[in-house]
Design a protein that fits this description.
Length: 222
């Protein structure tokens, strides 16, 4: 058994189930859950609201450095605005992936993410947590699922606006593939599995099955 509060890193592409698993692990372990995708989304939201061009690296990085984030219980806030719903739209999917390509924005957010997790007791989900933010995380999981399954989940995700339109799975799948391509091929910290991460293919598994496998990878809980 270990009583030390651990750092648990969960990475993987969109729709692989990271959010659901991260929330469940944080609840089971009484740890803090940090959704780093929410931070990229919130920064993109604020830049758009302030009329800043999303390719203006210095201006967007200033937001990433100085904004006050509120991240708790699945809510995302930035500088006093609750943006939980506003940041989960197809437009914000693309905007977040766009600002996430900018090295200065990444550097600013990585530093802030390290500050959230440094004392342990955290389940942090994203694209580069096990590779860049916490390369020495105690537990590293890489969640994946087939593109069809991920598109199906996204189009049924009640927290995402795509589930409220009649866009259809094919349109969602196309947008997901474009974002995956951007996340995997960008120069700055592309999405990739850390060598020492446990790869979990969640295709065809229930949430309970995935959570059980993830928990089994946590020392003292296996
Ligand atoms: O996880 P989520 O889909 O909310 O992330 C939105 C976007 O933020 C991703 O498509 C990716 O471009 C970016 N992101 C990232 N690194 C992270 C988390 C998210 O680049 N750690």
């Amino acid at each position: 058994m270990t009583s030390r509060r651990l750092i648990i890193a969960i990475d993987g592409p969109s729709g692989a189930g990271k959010g659901t698993v991260a929330r469940a692990l944080a609840l089971a372990l009484d740890y803090r859950h940090v959704d780093t995708g929410g931070m990229y989304r919130a920064v993109a939201w604020k830049a758009m609201r302030d009329g800043i061009d999303l390719t203006n690296e210095d201006a967007v990085a200033t937001i990433a450095n100085s904004a006050a984030f509120e991240l708790s219980h699945g809510q995302v806030g930035i500088d006093g605005h609750d943006v939980t719903a506003a940041i989960r739209t197809p437009e914000m999917d693309a905007a977040a992936a766009s600002v996430a390509r900018l090295p200065k924005v990444r550097a600013a957010l990585v530093e802030r993410q390290r500050a959230y997790g440094i004392e342990g007791g955290v389940v942090m989900e994203g694209r580069d947590i096990g590779t860049v933010v916490f390369p020495k995380a105690d537990v590293k999981l890489y969640l994946d699922a087939s593109p069809e399954e991920r598109a199906r989940r996204r189009s049924q995700d009640p927290s995402h606006a795509a589930s409220k339109t009649n866009a259809g799975v094919a349109v969602v799948a196309e947008a997901l593939a474009a974002r995956d391509q951007s996340d995997r091929t960008r120069a700055a910290s592309p999405l990739s599995k850390a060598e020492d991460a446990l790869y979990l293919d969640t295709t065809g598994l229930t949430i309970e099955e995935v959570v059980a496998r993830a928990l089994a990878a946590v020392p003292g809980r296996g």
